[in-house]
Amino acid sequence: MSATISKPPRPAAISREKMYLTLLSPLVTEKATSLSEKNQVVFRVAIDASKHDIKQAVEGLFGVNVLAVNTIVMKGKTKRFKGMPGQRSDWKKAMVRLADGQSIDLTTGLS
Questions:
Q1: Residue 76, SS3?
Q2: What is the pLDDT of residue 107?
Q3: Residue 96 in contact with residue 72, Cβ under 8 Å?
Protein backbone atom coordinates (compact mmCIF):
# COMPACT_ATOMS: atom_id res chain seq x y z
CA MET A 1 0.00 0.00 0.00
CA SER A 2 1.50 3.21 -1.17
CA ALA A 3 0.03 6.36 0.32
CA THR A 4 0.16 9.37 -1.94
CA ILE A 5 0.12 12.80 -0.47
CA SER A 6 -1.81 15.30 -2.51
CA LYS A 7 -1.70 19.03 -2.15
CA PRO A 8 -4.89 20.84 -1.23
CA PRO A 9 -6.48 22.69 -4.15
CA ARG A 10 -5.46 26.31 -4.57
CA PRO A 11 -8.14 28.86 -3.81
CA ALA A 12 -9.85 30.63 -6.68
CA ALA A 13 -8.68 34.03 -7.90
CA ILE A 14 -9.25 36.82 -5.40
CA SER A 15 -11.49 39.81 -6.09
CA ARG A 16 -10.14 43.24 -6.95
CA GLU A 17 -11.34 44.56 -3.59
CA LYS A 18 -9.37 41.85 -1.78
CA MET A 19 -6.30 42.80 -3.84
CA TYR A 20 -6.49 46.38 -2.55
CA LEU A 21 -6.99 45.12 1.03
CA THR A 22 -3.98 42.79 0.69
CA LEU A 23 -1.44 45.35 -0.58
CA LEU A 24 -1.57 48.28 1.84
CA SER A 25 1.29 50.43 0.53
CA PRO A 26 4.71 50.25 -1.11
CA LEU A 27 7.72 50.64 1.16
CA VAL A 28 10.11 53.30 -0.04
CA THR A 29 13.22 52.97 2.10
CA GLU A 30 16.90 52.90 1.28
CA LYS A 31 17.02 49.11 1.45
CA ALA A 32 13.82 48.70 -0.60
CA THR A 33 15.23 51.02 -3.26
CA SER A 34 18.44 48.99 -3.46
CA LEU A 35 16.36 45.82 -3.93
CA SER A 36 14.80 47.34 -7.05
CA GLU A 37 18.16 46.78 -8.77
CA LYS A 38 17.61 43.04 -8.19
CA ASN A 39 14.11 43.19 -9.73
CA GLN A 40 12.35 43.19 -6.35
CA VAL A 41 9.63 45.43 -4.92
CA VAL A 42 8.72 45.74 -1.24
CA PHE A 43 5.15 46.21 0.01
CA ARG A 44 3.46 46.61 3.36
CA VAL A 45 0.71 43.97 3.34
CA ALA A 46 -2.17 42.82 5.53
CA ILE A 47 -1.03 40.78 8.53
CA ASP A 48 -3.23 37.82 7.52
CA ALA A 49 -2.24 37.81 3.81
CA SER A 50 -0.70 34.62 2.47
CA LYS A 51 2.10 34.49 -0.10
CA HIS A 52 -0.37 33.20 -2.69
CA ASP A 53 -2.74 36.14 -2.02
CA ILE A 54 0.13 38.63 -2.30
CA LYS A 55 1.27 37.09 -5.61
CA GLN A 56 -2.25 37.26 -7.06
CA ALA A 57 -2.70 40.85 -5.88
CA VAL A 58 0.57 42.08 -7.44
CA GLU A 59 -0.07 40.25 -10.71
CA GLY A 60 -3.67 41.47 -10.86
CA LEU A 61 -3.07 45.12 -9.98
CA PHE A 62 0.21 45.76 -11.81
CA GLY A 63 0.07 43.24 -14.68
CA VAL A 64 3.49 41.68 -14.04
CA ASN A 65 4.76 38.12 -13.53
CA VAL A 66 5.82 37.31 -9.97
CA LEU A 67 8.54 34.69 -9.50
CA ALA A 68 8.70 34.60 -5.69
CA VAL A 69 7.25 36.22 -2.58
CA ASN A 70 9.14 36.44 0.72
CA THR A 71 7.33 37.71 3.81
CA ILE A 72 8.34 38.78 7.29
CA VAL A 73 6.26 39.90 10.27
CA MET A 74 7.78 43.01 11.80
CA LYS A 75 7.13 42.99 15.54
CA GLY A 76 5.91 46.26 17.04
CA LYS A 77 8.35 48.23 19.14
CA THR A 78 7.80 48.96 22.82
CA LYS A 79 7.60 52.75 23.14
CA ARG A 80 6.61 55.22 25.84
CA PHE A 81 3.63 57.54 25.37
CA LYS A 82 3.17 60.29 27.97
CA GLY A 83 5.33 58.33 30.37
CA MET A 84 3.29 55.12 30.05
CA PRO A 85 4.73 52.09 28.23
CA GLY A 86 2.93 51.12 25.06
CA GLN A 87 3.26 48.71 22.16
CA ARG A 88 3.15 49.53 18.44
CA SER A 89 1.18 47.17 16.23
CA ASP A 90 2.84 44.30 14.38
CA TRP A 91 2.87 44.57 10.58
CA LYS A 92 3.84 42.40 7.65
CA LYS A 93 6.33 43.14 4.88
CA ALA A 94 6.51 41.33 1.54
CA MET A 95 9.46 41.30 -0.84
CA VAL A 96 8.19 40.43 -4.33
CA ARG A 97 10.63 39.24 -7.00
CA LEU A 98 9.54 40.02 -10.56
CA ALA A 99 10.40 38.25 -13.80
CA ASP A 100 13.34 39.58 -15.81
CA GLY A 101 12.58 42.70 -17.82
CA GLN A 102 9.53 43.67 -15.74
CA SER A 103 9.19 46.50 -13.25
CA ILE A 104 6.61 48.39 -11.26
CA ASP A 105 6.65 52.19 -11.36
CA LEU A 106 5.55 53.25 -7.88
CA THR A 107 5.43 56.95 -8.77
CA THR A 108 2.34 56.50 -10.95
CA GLY A 109 -0.99 55.55 -9.45
CA LEU A 110 -3.07 52.48 -10.09
CA SER A 111 -5.68 52.64 -12.83
A1: coil
A2: 75
A3: no
